[in-house]
């Protein structure tokens, strides 16, 4: 961002950009503290949006790694009082369980957000795709799951 751009950006936009940059560069040992600090911002919508982007980026990187459960647990403690962020972490954990063929419940998948259902329908297990092809919340989710199943049967 150029200085001339910064003068015209509202304060929360600048803080958002700074938070994203700091969260992208934070050391693992300092991550919990930084996420907690960001969540103290007076503009809770902006702060939670920045943390959500961070959680999505980190969870995508760690989802299949052995370190994911301890990372998710530490993040869960920081976002505990924020229902949307807590739900997103739970959904990443469900996506992980599906991908690693660990135990999970069909009801949890069907009760999950459109975001998770679409993610699971696009790149998941055959079982999850079958469930979503039949009972996904939206037409887009059902069609994505059906397309994935067709592509698997073609191979």
Task: Provide a short characterization of the protein structure.
This protein has 155 residues and is an all-alpha fold. The chain contains ten helices and no strands. The chain has helices at 3-8, 11-25, 31-38, 44-62, 68-79, 83-99, 106-111, 114-122, 126-135, 139-154.
- Largest sheet: number of strands, sense, barrel closure: none
What share of residues are in beta strands? under 5%
Rg, rounded, reads: 18 Å
Estimated helix fraction: over 70%
- Assign an overall shape: elongated
Structural class: mainly alpha
What is the fold's blueprint, element by element?
Elements: H1 3-8, H2 11-25, H3 31-38, H4 44-62, H5 68-79, H6 83-99, H7 106-111, H8 114-122, H9 126-135, H10 139-154
Helix pairs in contact: 2-4, 3-5, 4-6, 5-6, 8-9, 8-10, 9-10
Detailed description of the structure:
The protein is built from 10 helices and no strands. The longest helix is centred in the middle third of the chain and has 19 residues, at 44-62. The protein has 155 residues and is mainly α. Helix 5 (68-79) packs antiparallel against helix 6 (83-99), helix 8 (114-122) crosses helix 9 (126-135) and helix 9 runs antiparallel to helix 10 (139-154).
Name its key features.
mainly alpha; single chain; 155 residues; disordered N terminus; 10 helices; elongated
């Amino acid at each position: 961002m150029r200085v001339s751009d910064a003068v015209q950006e509202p304060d929360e936009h600048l803080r958002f950009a700074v938070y994203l940059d700091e969260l992208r560069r934070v050391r693992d040992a300092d991550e919990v503290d930084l996420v907690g600090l960001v969540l103290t911002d007076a503009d809770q919508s902006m702060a939670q949006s920045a943390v959500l982007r961070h959680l999505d980026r980190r969870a995508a990187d760690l989802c299949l790694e052995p370190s994911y459960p301890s990372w998710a647990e530490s993040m869960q403690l920081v976002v505990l009082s924020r229902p949307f962020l807590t739900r997103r972490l739970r959904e990443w954990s469900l996506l992980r369980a599906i991908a690693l063929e660990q135990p999970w419940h069909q009801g949890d998948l069907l009760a999950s957000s459109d975001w998770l259902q679409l993610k699971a329908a696009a790149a998941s297990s055959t079982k999850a795709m079958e469930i979503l092809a039949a009972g996904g919340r939206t037409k887009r989710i059902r069609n994505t799951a059906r397309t994935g199943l067709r592509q698997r049967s073609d191979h």
